[in-house]
Amino acid sequence: MGKLYIVGTPIGNLEDISIRALKTLKKADLILTEDKRVTIKLLNALEIGEKNLFTFNQVNSERKIHQVLELLKTYERVCLVSDAGMPVISDPGSNLIDSCYKENIEIDIIPGPSAPIATLAASGFPGSKFTFLGFLPRDKNRRRLFRKIKDNLESEIYIFFDSPNRLLSTLKDLENIIGDVEVFIAREITKLHQEFFKGTTDEVIEHFNNNPLKGEITVAFSKRKPFS
After folding, report:
1. In this structure, how many other beta carbons lie within 10 angstroms of the beta carbon of residue 3?
2. Residues in domain Tetrapyrrole methylase (predicted)?
3. Residue 155 CA: distances (Å) to CA of 26, 68, 132, 219
4. pLDDT tens, residue by residue, 33-43
5. What sign does the CA torsion over 199, 202, 206, 209 have?
6. From edge to edge, which strands make up the β-sheet containing 217-222?
7. Pick the CATH number of 115-223 from 3.40.190.10, 3.40.50.2000, 3.30.950.10, 2.60.40.10
């Protein structure tokens, strides 16, 4: 019976790959990947060379779990990677890992970069307790979520992913429902055009109205009163 390795990969800067992740990928007999093209590019950049790849993504993960469990009987070292960052965090894989435990298949974790954690660390918000929301729903469902957050007394810090073309409407919903709170925007984390911006909801809206966004965005906000 093989072993499943959950491997964190860089979210932008390839130098963020850990020594252990590099060694694990080099020794892998099979790599489960969201997108073969992305993983091939990573392997080539890390000078790892060709590997057996098996597509395991949001579209096909449910119907391929049984097939992967069978592959774990054939291959000794099977790695699960996402396109960037830690697998399972807003990516497929949790059901596979749960199935591995049920089948007594050994699991190992090779921690790596994570956009939500990097954003929290860079934000200046307290890091002892937070809620990660993943990708927000659209329009009225997003507004419904914000109303629930407004009434939630258990958590103060929230982190989520958003797209450049939706960020301003998201921030306007946030301001209208929860109020003018502290917001931190992390764009293109660890990449060439990395940008951090922190301010009140109103200040952030004004800034990005004048400076259109591109790239991958992670947002953190605090329900506490804005700083002075």
Report:
1. 16
2. 3-204
3. 41, 37, 10, 16
4. 999 999 999 99
5. positive
6. 131-135, 157-162, 217-222, 182-187, 195-200
7. 3.30.950.10
